[in-house]
Amino acid sequence: MKLSSPLIEIERATVYRGDTCVFTDFSLSLQEGEHVAILGPNGAGKSTFLKLLAGEVHPVPNDETSIRLFGEERWNVWDVRKRLGMVSHDLQHQYMEKVTGLKVVLSGYYASIGTYGHQDFTYAQIACAHVVMEELGIGFLTDRRYGEMSTGEQRRCLLGRALVHDPIALVLDEPTSGLDLTATFHYLDLVRAHMQKGKTLLLVTHHIHEIPPEVERVLLLKQGKILQDGEKRAVLTEASLSQLFDCQVVLAQANGWYQALPG
Length: 263
Ligand SMILES: Nc1ncnc2c1ncn2[C@@H]1O[C@H](COP(=O)(O)OP(=O)(O)O)[C@@H](O)[C@H]1O
Ligand SMILES: [Mg+2]
Description:
Elements: E1 6-17, E2 20-31, E3 36-39, H1 46-53, E4 66-69, H2 77-83, E5 84-87, H3 89-94, H4 101-106, H5 123-135, H6 151-163, E6 169-173, H7 181-196, E7 200-205, E8 217-222, E9 225-231, H8 232-235, H9 238-245, E10 249-254, E11 257-262
Parallel strand pairs: 3-7, 3-8, 5-6, 6-7
Antiparallel strand pairs: 1-2, 1-4, 8-9, 10-11
Bound molecules: adenosine-5'-diphosphate and magnesium ion.
């Protein structure tokens, strides 16, 4: 696997959401093939960071600021959205209740919400959507309306939507929140299978238990600042997590997974 291609290079970005300054002089670079988790409490700026990548929010223009994605300074938002397969919780709520599973997956080709009459799909695209759905074990949801699926089923359809155009990286925002234990384990298994097939994972979350064992690098983000960035074993400690979440944390570990418990 290539380790040298840059996926994301952000230099000195200042980003506002409304009147809130989320990032000041923020820099970060991630490489293709490097599985990364960005961990932080609510409000740390995790979703804003992903919106910056998706071109939904922009840094304050400044000569010292640059954002390069896939090594390119000037990128087309639609191209990037196809190369980064994004799944977020926001997205799940935006879906129309009546859209079928197949259409949810197909909508990934347009990086859009749902599908619309003017969008044409080729036979190859439709065949590919069916293959992805079979791989994710959601073939039975092809004709089921989104509003009539369980949360776990909806989440797997959105994963299919992210995977259908064969992105370089999977970008997940709190992927298992709201899922029960079975659905969580199932979802993480599917994500790991795609990591093993070569997709780079970029995960942002406050759930320590959803960091797959394959993730090697962890960043701790608090109030728009990176508190720590390094090898997972070095970063995930009781002291650093207690500082990150402003409470006493005891850390449990098993088979490469971590779980935070009250201290
Ligand atoms: N649309 C918005 N308008 C104003 N402030 C916002 C908006 N969205 C997020 N924020 C603020 O930006 C900060 C970072 O939010 P967010 O990136 O959603 O954090 P996280 O995903 O880590 O929970 C928070 O202080 C939040 O209140
Ligand atoms: Mg968020």
